Amino acid sequence: MPRFSPVATEDYVSRLFRLNETGGSVTTQQMAVALQITSPSVTSMTKRLHERGLVCHHKYHGVNLTEQGRLLAIDVIRRHRLLELLL
């Protein structure tokens, strides 16, 4: 089973957080377009994130962040904004 880097995890949860700001679930297709990768890659990573308790994925109903995933996404976005200010 492939291993995913912490950077990939952070990219997924932060992108999911931003896509989910409008409310409702985010489809794997929406994630694939936003991340510019294939749908099977998103599905694979979504399963891994689900196993780690960061997302709640229901087949054919989309993906939502869990509270733990939401907190991680907020932390990632906050760090990125701080880095942007410093640069």
What does this structure look like?
The chain has 87 residues and is mainly α. It is built from four helices and two strands; from the N terminus they run αααββα. The protein has helices at residues 6-19, 28-35, 39-51, 67-86; strands spanning 55-58, 62-65. Strand 1 and strand 2 form a beta hairpin. Helix 1 (6-19) crosses helix 4 (67-86) and helix 2 (28-35) packs across helix 3. The termini are far apart. The model has no long low-confidence stretch (mean pLDDT 88).
Compact overview of the structure:
The protein is mainly alpha-helical and 87 residues long. The chain has helices at 6-19, 28-35, 39-51, 67-86, and strands at residues 55-58, 62-65. It is globular.
- Helix vs. strand class: mainly alpha
Portion of residues in beta strands equals 5-15%
> What is the share of helical residues?
55-70%
Mean pLDDT: 88
SSE string, helix = H, strand = E?
A: HHHEEH
What is the strand arrangement across the widest sheet? 1-2
End-to-end separation in angstroms reads 37 Å
The whole-angstrom Rg is 13 Å
Give the tally of β-strands: 2
Biggest sheet, open or closed, and with what strands and sense? 2 strands, antiparallel
Global geometry = globular
Q: Determine the oligomeric state from the structure.
A: single chain
Instruction: List low-pLDDT spans.
Output: none
Give me the number of helical elements: 4
